[in-house]
# Entry
Amino acid sequence: MNPAVQKTLSLIILLLIGFLLRKKFQDPAKQNGLKTLILTVALPAIIFVALLKAEIKADLLALPFLALGFNFILFFLLKYLLPLFGLEKDSPSYRTYLLLFPSLAPGLSCFPFLIEYLGDDALAWGALADIGNKFFVLIFAYMLAMSWFIRNYPNSNNGTREKVKSLLKSLVNEPINIVMILAMILLGLGIHMENLPPFLSSAIGNLSSLMTPLVLIYIGIAVIFNWKQIKKITGLLFLRSGITFIVSGLMVVFVPTLSFPAILVLVAFPQSAISFWPFAHMSAFVGMEQKMEDNKKRTFDLELAVNILAVSLPFSTAIMLGIFSFGEAFTSPTLLFSIGFLMIILSSSKALLKWITPMELRAELKKSLGSLF
# Structure
């Protein structure tokens, strides 16, 4: 059997184990505890190991800027595309989608596959790229959410400077960022993984080995199967993924000298699930809204945001499994463009049918095909 297929099957087994444990993790506090363990222990450990094992070259320092550029490309495209999919501009739903969709959460959705299929170097590249994405989700997304909130409640901008200071402080104190700074300092001093005391490198290595099984079990626990809730979200996730494949294909065309692992990182990293951080920003502003005397204006739709996050993670996992199971095929720009355009067509089929189909025929189709349209 193909080694990539065997590895994929082993990862699917971990997903199934998580699914079978759902009843034991129905309490949101238990799920959050597992997620906290991943993000504060396993993920920092595996990134630390990957950085100390990798050979960091000067040209890799462009990765954070590439990731940040992708965030902004997706943001500006969706700004104009979302209204075409029935989302009223400046509505709570529109703001919720626009804040969440350009963000990336590679720690839970991409990094486990990078380490399992491509190794430490690829994971180190992904970790460096995530620095740019962190700027987008932690700083730009917060500023954008704050501007929308102030537009709805013009008299509420007291204390915003303190909130920004608190945000920057949390950015510095985040375990992943602390670990990355420490690793970069050690690399600057010429210290690599093999130079650490054996007891320390062994302990860190054991912690890093928790990453893949914990993440996949967590995805199996968190996945939902309510089609009525996820139909529209899934359609827009197809749009997001299709645009991403096309952007990755353009990068492969313009930089044809990239190695096989580099191309797969370029293709997989932007397909990461949606980040939790914009949701955290929304929650903070919704909490402020509830304290307002005139709180009829909603800036965001938190229920929609929760559903987007819940659908995004298994959706991204399925995309990752496809990319890495057929890795060689996904180095072809032609395939990337084809998949990208196909996903965009699938996501926009309902809107296209409404546009090109006469009202009378559309009514007949709706009557014949039920809830499909």
Observations:
- Residues 96 and 181 are 32 Å apart (CA to CA).
- The chain is about 75% helix and 0% strand.
- The mean pLDDT is 80.
- The first helix runs from residue 3 to 20.
